[in-house]
Amino acid sequence: MIRAATPADAAAICGIWNPVIRDSLATFNATEKTPADIAQMIADKAAAGHAFLVAEVDQQRVGFGYLAQFRGGIGYRHSAEHTIYISAGAQGQGTGRALMDALCDHARAAAFHSLWAGVSAANPAAVQFHQRMGFKQVATLKEVGRKFDRWLDLILLQKML
């Protein structure tokens, strides 16, 4: 089931996100999230009219995703960027597809014209996932991130809604 996130989901979202932050190159972020951070993000997204969703399987939270305006400024108001993470045990079971479909539906309803993904080149499975979901690779930003003493490329993918 895909549903809107609430502050009660914050600890579970941390449980999904923090291992990715701590142990992988899928995100360039190196600072783990707290439940208070997540609760504030949920409130901020709601105030901006942007989706913050969770995926549940057997009443367990197994993924989350949210939308944000692609860049600041009124000229970008019709372009959104998304973030999506699925717990390791739930990957490959259709949860990511369900979350992405729901995010695309929310983006369309919010009058976004295009949806963007910024994916670490060190995460080729995420690049492939986005391509299967109809995103097209439009740019590779060379060595714009740094984590674990490595320079990392960022792949930008776009889907026209």
Q: Strands, helices and their partners?
A:
Layout: E1 2-4, H1 10-23, H2 35-48, E2 52-57, E3 60-69, E4 79-86, H3 95-109, E5 114-120, H4 124-132, E6 136-147, E7 150-160
Parallel strand pairs: 4-5
Antiparallel strand pairs: 1-2, 2-3, 3-4, 5-7, 6-7
Shape: globular
Main sheet strand line-up: 1-2-3-4-5-7-6
State the separation between the terminal residues, measured CA to CA. 23 Å
Count of discrete alpha- or pi-helical segments spanning 4 or more residues:
4
Structural class: alpha+beta
Helix content: 25-40%
Number of strands: 7
Share of residues in strands: 35-45%
The H/E string reads EHHEEEHEHEE
Mean pLDDT: 96
The Cα radius of gyration reads: 15 Å
Low-pLDDT parts are none
Task: Please describe the biggest sheet, giving its number of strands, its sense, and whether it closes into a barrel.
Answer: 7 strands, mixed
Keywords:
161 residues, alpha+beta, 7-stranded mixed sheet, globular
Structure description:
Helices cover 32% and strands 35% of the residues. The protein contains 4 helices and 7 strands. The protein has helices at 10-23, 35-48, 95-109, 124-132, and strands spanning 2-4, 52-57, 60-69, 79-86, 114-120, 136-147, 150-160. It has a 7-stranded mixed β-sheet, sandwiched between helices. α1 crosses α2 (35-48). The two termini are 23 Å apart.
